[in-house]
Amino acid sequence: MIRTVVLVGLFSARVRDYQDQLDALDAQVTTLGVRVHARFVQRRGVSAGGVRLLSSPLSRRFLIGTGKLAQVAAACASADIDAIVFVNELTAYQRRWLSARFGRPVLTRTDVARSTSALTVPARPRRLSTDRTAKPNRHRR
């Protein structure tokens, strides 16, 4: 079970209500009984050079920039953070790399919306293992 999280979001300069989006996610998470330790915002296109790339991620692997990634990792290391929740949708590739980098599960707003009672780590599909040492169950007549 997840008790403490950090919220992270990448927002274009065109998005004016990014604080409202973080507030809404914060409220959703808090309603589920999870404490929000910190919130991190990465803005895209605020500088003159970033305007042409407003809607694209800063990093194909991590979505956010390396500086913001380091800030989030430091916050997770300094506190007992159970998971990171992104406002943005993530690809499986990004989720895998972010989880590996943070050493914690990485969730999205969609994962929080699906949760009914408490945040849990998204289930991975399980592979059926075949136990070849088990003896077949034979019925006697």
TrEMBL record:
Region (Disordered): 121-141
Source organism (scientific name): Micromonospora sonneratiae
Protein origin, superkingdom: Bacteria
InterPro entries hit by this protein: GTPase_HflX_N, GTPase_HflX_N_sf
Domain GTPase HflX N-terminal: 29-112
Coiled-coil residues: none
Official protein name in the record: GTPase HflX N-terminal domain-containing protein
